[in-house]
């Protein structure tokens, strides 16, 4: 891998910053706020920031870069897909529980729902995230989608995944700001009490975490090598072992099969071009 040392340094920084963010969110709710509970009170609201930062920010960030860990490149693509999809599913579950907490809190306290920009953008991000998760499973994990659909959807999958992730960080920053303005009365937020400084630092760490993940996920030379593509490009009869790619392909439509079985030099070049156009990502 090119720049292995730099990748490791960025990964270690992202893990550290993400971990410290989770700890700071816990310090915030336990030391400065009412702790955690599930009784319609402020303790229930506090699950909202804690689960969002743990699940929707930290776990989602790791899910996004998991394909790029060089020591996983020897693992099968199918295993990595399960890890990527599994981590994203955990993030989704934690985000949903955190939303239930804030809605229940609002209803118990007769606070109107969905009035703020934070809540509009936040709910939109959760809806798009669930759509992304569903489509990810349907297109890239289950063996039914034809190869041309996978190739066409992969750049959209990557773009929308990164956009949703950036939106989630922005939403968290809005939520943090709102909470500080609502909760800090005497001394007020504008008087910069220690809680405000701690939580401002938490916001800064979330921006740094997001930037590190987006940087690592957008370097072309740190992408998982398209070794599986090489297998796709080989004629099926010539593959030495029964790979995941091959078995998935075998189940795809006849048109795709005949395309991929083509062993002519022209077809190989066309296939290489198609995968190059898809950002050289293995979609299988
Ligand atoms: C409320 C989503 C992060 C603080 C809400 C509501 C939604 C939401 C949908 C509306 C609930 C209702 O109307 O009953 C999200 C999402 C987040 C996120 C998707 C992650 C990206 C945060 C964070 C904080 C926070 C990190 C920090 C404390 C608040 C506050 C409210 C709220 C104070 C109540 C005021 C309002 O409705 O805007 N959130 N939130 N949120 N959230 Fe978040
Ligand atoms: C790649 C996001 C769900 C399959 C990616 C990438 C992002 C992303 C940002 C680019 C990673 C990179 O360039 O290294 C998401 C998000 C999801 C989600 C936010 C959930 C909401 C899924 C699911 C599957 C899936 C359920 C099904 C297995 C893939 C595949 C790649 C990928 C095959 C290409 C990996 C490569 O470059 O080798 N995803 N994804 N994704 N995702 Fe997802």
From TrEMBL:
The keyword Iron applies. Its EC number is 7.2.1.3. GO terms for molecular function: metal ion binding; transmembrane ascorbate ferrireductase activity. Residues 13-218 form the Cytochrome b561 domain. It is a multi-pass membrane protein. Residues 234-284 are annotated as: Disordered. Its cofactor is heme b. GO terms for cellular component: apical plasma membrane; lysosomal membrane. The chain crosses the membrane at residues 7-30, 50-70, 82-103, 123-144, 156-176, 196-217. InterPro entries: CYB561/CYBRD1-like, Cyt_b561/ferric_Rdtase_TM. This is Plasma membrane ascorbate-dependent reductase CYBRD1. Homodimer. It catalyses: monodehydro-L-ascorbate radical(out) + L-ascorbate(in) = monodehydro-L-ascorbate radical(in) + L-ascorbate(out); Fe(3+)(out) + L-ascorbate(in) = monodehydro-L-ascorbate radical(in) + Fe(2+)(out) + H(+); Cu(2+)(out) + L-ascorbate(in) = Cu(+)(out) + monodehydro-L-ascorbate radical(in) + H(+). It holds the Pfam family Cytochrom_B561. Signal peptide: none annotated. It is an enzyme of class 7 (translocase). It is found in: Apical cell membrane. Coiled coil: none annotated. Keywords: Cell membrane, Electron transport, Heme, Iron, Membrane, Metal-binding, Oxidoreductase, Translocase, Transmembrane, Transmembrane helix, Transport. Residues 254-284 have a biased composition (Basic and acidic residues). It comes from the Eukaryota.
